[in-house]
Amino acid sequence: MSHRSLRLCAILGAAGLALTTCALALAASTVWDAAHRGDLPVLHLGSAER
To answer: Which helix (H) or strand (E) holds 36?
Structure first.
């Protein structure tokens, strides 16, 4: 790979990581707020269906 494509790959990777982190933080904040208001629905995860 050339220096240019390595740099582009690094920039895209860093941007993707930042967006993922932001999305996870937003989702966690939404769930946290809902849980504190008592609005959180029951989550049907695999272990909860026993």
So the answer is: helix 3-37
